[in-house]
What we know:
CATH superfamily of the domain at 269-469: nitrate reductase domain like
Shape: globular
Number of helices: 22
Amino acid sequence: MRVKAQNSMTFNLEKCIGCNTCTVACKNVWTNREGAEYMWWNNVETKPGIGYPKQWENQERWRGGWVRKGDGLTLRYGSKPYQLANLFFNPHMPEMKDYYGGDVYTFTYDDLHDPEQQKQQPVARPKSMVTEEEDIPITWGVNWEDNAGGTNVTGKLDLNFKGMSEQERDAFLRFRDVFYFYLPRICNHCVNPACVAACPSGAAYKREEDGVVLIDQNRCRNWRYCISSCPYKKPYYNWVSGKMEKCILCYPRVEHGLPPVCFHSCVGKIRSFGVTFYDMDRVPDAAMVDDKDLVRAHRDVILDPSDPAVVAKARESGLSDDWIDAAQRSPVYKLFKRWELALPLHPEFRTLPSLFYIPPLSPITTSAGSISPDEKDVFDMDQPKGVLIDPDEIDRFRVPITYLANLFAAGNPEPVRVSLRRQLAVRLYERSVRVDKRPNVDVLKRVGLTEDDAKGIVRALSLAFYNERFVIPTTKREDADISPYTERGFAGYSAMGPLTPLKRRKSYFPAPHDPAKDYE
């Protein structure tokens, strides 16, 4: 057992209102400069839809993530000789039109302030920031599909409808309000990051002390393979500096015990942040299992921080008591591992992401004029039935289970059903306590929960204080091994693979600068 600490996150989609306050906060802090105009390290997408950049989930087109090959994993992009052959022309990378429909643009705001009298009302026209061309067409943007706008067209390219007939898909897309929900996205800071393994210069790396994935700006040579190999398309190219940039999980804040700004600013309080311990020795096997077992294997990698054996191994790995205490109080561990409510985004990419989503509940579809099954079946205290008795009944939810399964469980509906049924059971239990004054414990037993579990879930998702949602130990940088001549986590094109930490050789780094030699 080799214990590693990982800063991890959960997003509760049941409460996301798509206000984009998180996006604005991130934009103002990190990407409000030249060259980063089109960078949205945090963005909120509306599902169904193809997202930002266009069709980022389509790995047949972009070749991101990992695939099994023989007894190991290989980058979906291709072999290292294939990457080298495409070094100066990358055919599997989103272009600017996939982000903004054309060039990065601004508007001719000076026209609004020109004192010269005109024959018509002045208008700020779109203007390319790259070519200075004016009146460029705008055909796409980061929020192009907000609130399901245009989804009847773009939704047909949404891969999460896989497994449904064309008639079913068209029926869901024909009527805009049949279902949609919001999907906020940031870098997943994966345990097995494909972007790190693909970087020829070793600029992308995963920090040993907390698992944050970063890009060394001094080493970056803008090969852009991190864009292609990241299946979530979260690295971006700065067209002014010629460097790659990505979400840094606000590590200057996290190191001081503060949450990232998108977490802090979230109006719906959907975000939780905490430390999880995982067994590094199990990671290769977890990334190799069949698609239907990926969620289970991912949970098996996460260790119980209260287990004395895990605590002992954590101390051997150099983790201090405050980090162990934070892991024991982590809301992420409870929501993902203990209660099995949260799920990873597209686990079939095999990157083992550290961001988990609680899938949204939705109304049960009924025929016009019929009594709601919520009243007839689910809330019947004496004869409980419906979705908590027959798992197939959950397929009557307005958000298709198949869609959620393709999004969060590699097509396996069972983990999604467990999450949704447990969320429903907690609601029914709370209703029985507050309305009927008769606690219905049976409804919890049917889904494998106890009363303590139900109270903990309510606390974590609805009533948690700031210090309960964000359990972040301060980082002791003086204890971190940050020398470039020693192990620096997963990094480098010359590594055997992402699962083998790369030992840096001194020859990879320039000699320390000696100012005295400038005058020799």
